[in-house]
UniProtKB/TrEMBL annotation, chains A, B:
<dbReference type="InterPro" id="IPR036879">
    <property type="entry name" value="TF_MADSbox_sf"/>
</dbReference>
<dbReference type="GO" id="GO:0005634">
    <property type="term" value="C:nucleus"/>
</dbReference>
<dbReference type="InterPro" id="IPR002100">
    <property type="entry name" value="TF_MADSbox"/>
</dbReference>
<keyword id="KW-0804">Transcription</keyword>
<dbReference type="InterPro" id="IPR033897">
    <property type="entry name" value="SRF-like_MADS-box"/>
</dbReference>
<feature type="region of interest" description="Disordered">
    <location>
        <begin position="183"/>
        <end position="204"/>
    </location>
</feature>
<feature type="domain" description="MADS-box">
    <location>
        <begin position="1"/>
        <end position="49"/>
    </location>
</feature>
<keyword id="KW-0539">Nucleus</keyword>
<dbReference type="GO" id="GO:0046983">
    <property type="term" value="F:protein dimerization activity"/>
</dbReference>
<dbReference type="InterPro" id="IPR050142">
    <property type="entry name" value="MADS-box/MEF2_TF"/>
</dbReference>
<dbReference type="GO" id="GO:0000987">
    <property type="term" value="F:cis-regulatory region sequence-specific DNA binding"/>
</dbReference>
<keyword id="KW-0238">DNA-binding</keyword>
<dbReference type="GO" id="GO:0045944">
    <property type="term" value="P:positive regulation of transcription by RNA polymerase II"/>
</dbReference>
<protein>
    <recommendedName>
        <fullName>MADS-box domain-containing protein</fullName>
    </recommendedName>
</protein>
<dbReference type="GO" id="GO:0000981">
    <property type="term" value="F:DNA-binding transcription factor activity, RNA polymerase II-specific"/>
</dbReference>
<dbReference type="Pfam" id="PF00319">
    <property type="entry name" value="SRF-TF"/>
</dbReference>
<keyword id="KW-0805">Transcription regulation</keyword>
DNA sequence: CCGTCTATCTATAACGG
DNA sequence: TCCGTTATAGATAGACG
């Protein structure tokens, strides 16, 4: 009949609450004390009651400060480590993006060269005002085309023993141009504006 | 047969200690939680186990930091107040000591004057090379002596109707000199050296 | 290591002084 | 408000799977 099951809720009765607070506080501190003794751990408890002017600090203000300094130190270290981790992660991201950017630049250069080549095929006089690097790139590209053409012709000649022709090169150039045209210019720093892109997708 | 009464001491058995730690930690946290709920108090607990890499922080690292910031703030305020109190206490001490010092200086001056007076009585020519303040002090001291003599003689004449004599003054001077000679020169800043005195007594 | 079980121990709710 | 008492709810030591 005594000892009804205590309901876990705020005790509105003032005196009862204060009495409960005192009792439980004592029990709690005893618990902490026992834990410290039994398991040799650093533990502290800080309890503020609006009903009590003094906060209860176990094992002592000094001891509590010691424990919480340790805790603060550890969390700070963790925070720094986290920051470090994030930083290295971001640096990895940047490196990755930079690599991709370099790739895109290279492809873009090739595309430009291809455009010039096509233009030159249509109107040879337009090649007059090209810079030396452009001409170099153009020549190396043409070399690549020629190599590709040689390989294709070799395959064709092995399979069907056909005579040489001028058609394959032209087709190859057109195919290449079409392929590169499929690539969107998201990473094309040579032509895209300098504005930042706004990410609107969820969870980024 | 089960459940022997647990001895309140460090559990040397490793596994048993760890198991105990986990169980009691849980219980402790539950207690803190209930206290918070039942009495609406701000309470936190921080527990470090050497067996555990992570410290246990209730209600949460953030919550604990909040509570301990409150505590730190309060203790700092207290500390400042304590410092203030100590400061004012020390100032009071200093004032007291200064007062006593001034007293001692005064007595010392009187003693010096007495010495000069006695010297002068033995060899009157030695009064020649005294400074004006010394002479002034000497004269006022003589005035005091004379006053004292008058009073004593009055008492004597009232009690015994005796004739005036020159003996009492001399006796008075000797008594006074003897009395002042009993005072050790601990606070005698006029003659003591400037070295600090070493306190060797216990509990100071 | 981890959860579960149970006999036991401990803390404490309710009450009276 | 504080202390003491008492019966009980809740915590837990030790064992087991």
């Amino acid at each position: 009949m005594m000892r009804k099951k205590v309901k876990l809720a705020y005790i509105t009765n003032n005196a009862a609450r204060k009495a409960m607070y005192k009792k439980r506080k004592m029990g709690l501190i005893k618990e902490v004390s026992e834990l410290r003794t039994l398991c040799n751990v650093d533990a502290c408890a800080i309890i503020y009651s609006p009903d009590d002017s003094q906060p209860e600090v176990y094992p002592s203000p000094l001891g509590a400060v010691r424990v919480l300094a340790k805790f603060k130190n550890m969390t700070e270290k963790k925070h720094i480590k986290k920051m470090r981790d994030q930083e290295s992660f971001l640096q990895q991201c940047i490196a990755k993006v930079n690599e991709e950017l370099e790739n895109r630049r290279k492809k873009n250069r090739e595309k430009e060269i291809t455009k010039l080549l096509l233009k030159g095929l249509v109107a040879p006089s337009s090649l007059q005002d090209l810079s030396l690097p452009d001409l170099n790139g153009l020549s190396s590209l043409i070399d690549l085309y020629l190599k590709d053409i040689d390989q294709r012709m070799e395959k064709l000649s092995l399979g069907q023993t056909q005579e040489e022709d001028c058609k394959p090169p032209t087709v190859a150039v057109q195919v290449e141009a079409a392929t590169t045209a499929e690539c969107p210019s998201e990473f094309d720093d040579q032509h895209a504006g300098g504005g930042a892109t706004a990410a609107t997708g969820p969870g980024i």
